Amino acid sequence: QVQLVESGGGLVQAGDSLTLSCTASGRPFSTLGMGWFRQAPGKEREFVAGIGWTGRNIKYADSVKGRFTVSRDNVKSTVYLQMNSLRSEDTAVYHCAAHLQEYALYYDYDFWGQGTQVTVSS
After folding, report:
1. Could you tell me if 1 and 100 are in contact, meaning their C-beta atoms sit under 8 angstroms apart?
2. What is the per-residue pLDDT across 50-86, written as a single tens digit (0 to 9) for each?
3. Do 99 and 111 form a contact (C-beta atoms < 8 A)?
4. What is residue 90's DSSP assignment?
5. How many other CB atoms are there within 10 angstroms of residue 100's CB atom?
6. C-alpha to C-alpha distances, 112 to 32, 38, 95, nearest whole angstrom
7. Quick check: 121 and 16 in contact, CB under 8 A?
8. Are strands 58-60 and 46-51 parallel, antiparallel or unpaired?
9. pLDDT tens-digit profile of 74-118?
10. Measured between alpha carbons, how far is residue 13 from residues 32, 88, 90, 94 in Å?
11. Are 12 and 119 in contact (CB under 8 A)?
């Protein structure tokens, strides 16, 4: 079983930056594909970014391309989501997720974190 714990959420103003972290345990981190999803009130959960085992294969949702950067540190068993130029529409609970495939995925994740709230005031 894989455990995922997110941190770094908070209240920021539009245009600010924020970095989320997610630490994994329960399986060698270098064998986990990782991703970030978000769910805003009244909306379905949506994919934000995904990263493969080595960090070279990465996918982003169109809505965050050029503003968000996903990265991983396999020594620290941590995946990051650097969020720049935040907008009010980025307000959501952000969830870390993991799967067992080598490459970045848009879906088919097996393990989920509890989430961390990001609120962007305009």
Report:
1. no
2. 999 999 999 999 999 999 999 999 999 999 999 999 9
3. yes
4. G
5. 14
6. 12, 12, 7
7. no
8. antiparallel
9. 999 999 999 999 999 999 999 999 999 999 999 999 999 999 999
10. 33, 8, 11, 17
11. yes
